[in-house]
From TrEMBL:
<feature type="domain" description="Peptidase A1">
    <location>
        <begin position="37"/>
        <end position="392"/>
    </location>
</feature>
<dbReference type="InterPro" id="IPR033121">
    <property type="entry name" value="PEPTIDASE_A1"/>
</dbReference>
<protein>
    <recommendedName>
        <fullName>Peptidase A1 domain-containing protein</fullName>
    </recommendedName>
</protein>
<dbReference type="InterPro" id="IPR021109">
    <property type="entry name" value="Peptidase_aspartic_dom_sf"/>
</dbReference>
Length: 394
């Protein structure tokens, strides 16, 4: 999770660490395969099993202080799913007041987090990493009235300013630590979402593989990270050079850009920690215009107003009978000659929301994020060794 983020929820269980042979490679590459259930992974830290949000915009393992959590939400609250609780041992309590090395951060949902660092044993399906550094965190401010805080299993690289929190203290990303400790052989990951599975908060289920290599001949698109002075290729970023709307048959819905104030090329983040598709454009208004135009064409003008509504969560909710008229979003990622023309279909950005409605997880976002809809549409491989992104249609 990075500094701008939409609310989210996810769960994961971990599979085995194994050696696989990549096509065209002489040596085996160690990988860890992790099943993802509703966005969360399950790991064991110092013998305590915790469920953590799989977050490609976050670099650490961050668990929640169990004593703080149950004081805030009630005794037994840590037994609930997705709590991410970790109880510090009595002989080595987590004392935030006296700790001289506290990391702080904030998120787009107005949450604020404070964390201290601990070292312990990380167990991934029988494969143990000792001396693994992780965060124990509290939220002084939590930005959701619907969901409680959760922990994180981050798979991004470290931002440069994150590496020297204190003289003599060396920061590492999760991928760096797992590679150094011999669990994986490469600073990379691949995410394969199961497009048939949906969750209440619209986050992916499927599998993430850490440390793998990608055979580029088997991918649809391969392009480099966008080099950005703010993120320094720590996060999975790319240029969006154009956005167009199409119908289900691939016909362009507008002869001109549907966004008269389109900002031109802009950076986007590919983020498992976001449950939606957000661009610095009036996407919801464009969807409504497409629906209105289609219903007028079919002489159903009296029913237009009842076909959609805005929910208090900020997303559009449409009647299921309008689903087939929703547009396909066509984005061109990166610049020529490496541009990738991807398409996000309604089945990727919508989810059932009751008997008669569907939630449309598309919104305006000042800083662009391609979350769940992208991962439903494409298998995403990210390699921090050569700073390349590969996409393969699901």
């Amino acid at each position: 999770m990075w500094k701008v983020r939409a609310p989210m929820l996810l769960r994961v269980m971990m599979d085995t660490c194994r050696e696989v042979y990549s096509v065209g490679q002489d040596a085996p590459v160690k990988t860890v395969e992790i099943p993802v259930e509703e966005g969360f992974v399950t790991v064991s830290i110092d013998g305590q099993e915790v469920e953590l949000l799989l977050d490609s915009g976050f670099s650490d393992v961050s668990v929640l202080d169990g004593d703080w959590y149950e004081k805030k939400y009630g005794k037994g609250a840590c037994q609930e799913r997705f709590s991410g609780c970790y109880f510090c041992p009595k002989e080595a309590p987590c004392n935030f007041a006296e700790n001289d090395m506290i990391a702080t951060g904030s998120f787009g949902n107005k949450s604020a987090i404070r964390s201290i660092f601990r070292s312990g044993s990380l167990l991934l399906e029988g494969h143990r990493a000792t001396g693994f550094v992780f965060k124990v965190s509290r939220y002084p401010v939590w930005g959701s009235d619907t969901w409680r805080p959760w922990g994180h299993f981050g798979i991004s690289a470290l931002l440069p300013e994150s590496k020297s929190l204190k003289p003599g203290f060396k920061r590492e990303s999760v991928l760096d630590s797992l590679k150094r400790l011999g669990l994986i052989g490469r600073l990379s990951y691949s995410i394969q979402a199961d497009v048939r599975q949906h969750s209440m908060m619209n986050f992916i289920s499927g599998q993430v593989t850490l440390g793998d290599m990608q055979n580029e001949s088997n991918t649809n698109y391969v392009f480099p990270f966008k080099h950005d002075i703010r993120f320094h290729r720590a996060y999975t970023t790319a240029w969006v050079s154009s956005v167009k709307l199409f119908d289900a048959e691939g016909n362009l819905l507008t002869t001109e850009s549907p966004y008269p104030k389109q900002p031109g090329s802009f950076m986007t983040l590919m983020d498992t920690g976001s449950n939606n598709f957000g661009l610095p454009m009036s996407l919801q208004e464009s969807i409504v215009k497409v629906l209105e135009k289609e219903f007028k064409r079919r002489d159903n003008t009296t029913r237009i107003a009842g076909m959609w509504r805005r929910h208090k969560n900020g997303f559009l909710y449409i009647k299921k009978e309008a689903f087939n008229y929703l547009p396909v979003f066509g984005l061109r990622l990166n610049d020529e000659p490496d541009s990738a023309p991807i398409k996000i279909h309604p089945k990727h950005y919508c989810q059932n929301a009751g008997k008669d409605e569907m939630a449309v997880f598309v919104r305006y976002s000042r800083l662009s994020v391609l979350g769940t809809p992208l991962f439903r549409a494409y298998r995403v491989h990210v390699d921090y060794t050569n700073h390349k992104i590969a996409l393969l249609k699901n």
